[in-house]
Amino acid sequence: MARFVAIEGSEGVGKSTQITHLIQWLQDQQIDVVQTREPGGSPAAEAIRAIAIDPTYKSMPDKAEVLLMFAARADHVENTIRPALARGAWVVSDRFTEASYAYQGAGRQIGSETIEWLERFVLGDFRPDLTIVLTLDRQVADGRVIARGQKDRIEVAGEDFYRRVEQAYLDRAALNAERTVIIDASGTAEAVHQRIIAAVQEYLF
Ligand code: TMP
């Protein structure tokens, strides 16, 4: 059966590595899987992403930012995610709506009610079957972000912003425990991969 999995977490938690390993593992199980990301994941949504994270647009209001995220999401769901699920494929997305609750709702302090409203407007009842939230000690994660080089427009936000983002991911996971799992992203990539596989098997098989 087609499944939609979103992988979330703050910057530097090892999301990309884990997504690569998860995709490989699903393919090893003979599962047809589409890898995608947000903001982005369809031609128009990728164009919106370029604007949303471009550091040139320093003065972009938070309201414009949140609307860009949901504009990209509307296109991504319609043109990439739903068609893939309809043909029976799994979809693994690097971020989805939980990122808007965390970054715009909490980080930018727009408030979760506005995100809820936009979520309902754009998605109706459509939600991931499972959201995996990777968590890691902030100092370890920061070290990885610095090692990666240039930051995007949203990544330059300060320490308090990231504290709010991380707390929101945890609070939202508690609220939606039936479709969200928090995974400790410390230790080796292989150890984290095994934790993710265990969760996928528990929730989705
Ligand atoms: P990435 O670093 O995972 O590629 O994501 C790009 C940036 O977009 C990252 O700083 C998180 C941010 N983002 C939001 O602020 N809100 C959202 O809804 C999404 C999907 C991403």
Describe the structure.
This protein has a single domain (4-204), classed as Rossmann fold. Helices cover 57% and strands 13% of the residues. The chain has 8 helices and 5 strands. The model has no long low-confidence stretch (mean pLDDT 96). It is α/β, with parallel strands linked by helices. The protein has helices at residues 15-28, 43-52, 62-86, 97-107, 112-123, 138-148, 159-175, 189-204; strands spanning 4-9, 33-37, 90-94, 130-135, 180-184. A 5-stranded parallel β-sheet has the order 2-3-1-4-5, sandwiched between helices. Helix 1 (15-28) packs across helix 8 and helix 2 (43-52) runs antiparallel to helix 3. The radius of gyration is 16 Å and the shape is globular. The structure holds thymidine-5'-phosphate (TMP). Residues 38-39, 53, 69, 94-95, 99-100, 103-104, 152, 154-155 line the site of thymidine-5'-phosphate (TMP).
Blueprint (SSEs and pairs):
Blueprint: E1 4-9, H1 15-28, E2 33-37, H2 43-52, H3 62-86, E3 90-94, H4 97-107, H5 112-123, E4 130-135, H6 138-148, H7 159-175, E5 180-184, H8 189-204
Parallel strand pairs: 1-3, 1-4, 2-3, 4-5
Helix pairs in contact: 1-8, 2-3, 3-5, 4-5, 4-7
CATH architecture: 3-Layer(aba) Sandwich
General form: globular
User: Which regions have little confidence, pLDDT < 50, spanning 5+ residues?
Assistant: none
Listing every helix as H and every strand as E from the N terminus to the C terminus, the arrangement reads EHEHHEHHEHHEH
CATH fold-type name: Rossmann fold
Give the strand order, joined by hyphens, for the main sheet.
2-3-1-4-5
Mean pLDDT across the residues is: 96
Q: Evaluate the radius of gyration.
A: 16 Å
Number of E-type strands: 5
List the ions, cofactors and other small molecules found in this model.
thymidine-5'-phosphate
Structural class, from secondary structure content? alpha/beta
Terminus-to-terminus distance:
9 Å
Count of separate DSSP helical elements: 8
Q: So, the CATH homologous superfamily?
A: P-loop containing nucleotide triphosphate hydrolases
**In percent terms, what proportion of residues is strand?**
5-15%
Instruction: Outline the biggest β-sheet.
Output: 5 strands, parallel
Indicate the CATH class. Alpha Beta
User: What is the domain tally?
Assistant: 1
Portion of residues within helices:
55-70%
